[in-house]
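Quiz preparation item.
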């Protein structure tokens, strides 16, 4: 399994002889997990996997794949790298591990779940440069998924798990948490990987239980509203709404009816308050498409 350095443009400044020896590809920012204790903790964090199918994102050299295969009925290892995919096929029996050689963004989780007859568990050491698109892909596939244990760059985990009022709370926090609760598990130093990346990595658990129906909001419209509400974090919510096309009077009315201070900023509001505000705005048709 491999982590990726946090920079999409230059995951590492240069490839070293050690990287080449390990088979790590600098262009993909590959850093292979070598901490055996961390491997066991990640696999165990998914709970009882007997009889279950696990989809693993970015299995790399198969460190976590092996731990999952020993616990689960079957593992679907989603690996883009052709050489790593071939090595995985040689390392694991096909009745235990199916290797899907493709981009995870194109993987059909719904079809895989339908084939197994149950929702999937997910494990993944997410490529740092496309972490957000993968999280959105998992959110869109929520009906086919039960829970995920994911490793991401520490700063991304800070945003995903952030609480209202904190510096890191924003669009990613609200979006992910609308699809179910998230929980930080542990953080790994660069030394847990070979070659070591330039960043720490954090593992978190995400249980898929969307809140849209519970909170009385329409999925696409509410998430569009969230992006607009957080568009300029230093501006008040009222100013961001006006910039999105809501008249000053309508913005002030909706904020007041939602029981909010006129000077409130989006990052101060828990999900329940944001959805309450959206319910005031949506019937009036005051939000313009992005």
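Solution:
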């Amino acid at each position: 399994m491999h982590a990726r350095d946090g920079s999409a443009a230059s995951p590492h400044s240069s490839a070293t002889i050690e990287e080449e020896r390990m088979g790590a590809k600098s262009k993909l920012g590959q850093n292979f997990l070598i901490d055996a204790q961390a491997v066991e903790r990640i696999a165990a964090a998914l709970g009882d996997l007997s009889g279950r199918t696990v989809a693993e994102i970015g299995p790399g050299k198969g460190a976590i794949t092996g731990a999952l295969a020993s616990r689960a009925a079957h593992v679907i290892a989603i690996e883009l790298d052709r050489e790593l995919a071939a090595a995985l096929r040689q390392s694991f029996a096909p009745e235990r591990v199916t290797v899907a050689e493709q981009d995870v963004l194109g993987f059909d989780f719904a079809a895989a779940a339908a084939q197994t007859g149950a929702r999937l568990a997910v494990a993944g050491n997410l490529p740092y440069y496309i972490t957000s698109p993968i999280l959105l892909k998992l959110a869109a596939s929520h009906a086919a998924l039960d829970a995920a244990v994911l490793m991401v760059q520490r700063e991304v985990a800070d945003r995903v798990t952030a609480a209202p009022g904190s510096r890191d709370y924003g669009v990613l926090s609200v979006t992910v948490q609308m699809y179910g609760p998230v929980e930080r598990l542990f953080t790994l130093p660069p030394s847990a990987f070979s070659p070591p990346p330039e960043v720490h990595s954090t593992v978190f658990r995400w249980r898929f239980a969307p809140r849209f129906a519970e909170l009385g909001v329409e999925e696409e419209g509410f998430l569009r509203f969230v992006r607009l509400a957080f568009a300029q974090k230093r501006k008040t919510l009222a100013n961001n709404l006006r910039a999105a096309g809501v008249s000053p009077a309508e913005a002030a009315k909706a904020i007041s009816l939602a029981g909010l201070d006129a000077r409130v900023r989006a990052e101060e509001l828990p999900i329940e308050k944001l959805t309450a505000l959206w319910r005031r705005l949506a019937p009036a048709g005051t939000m313009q498409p992005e």
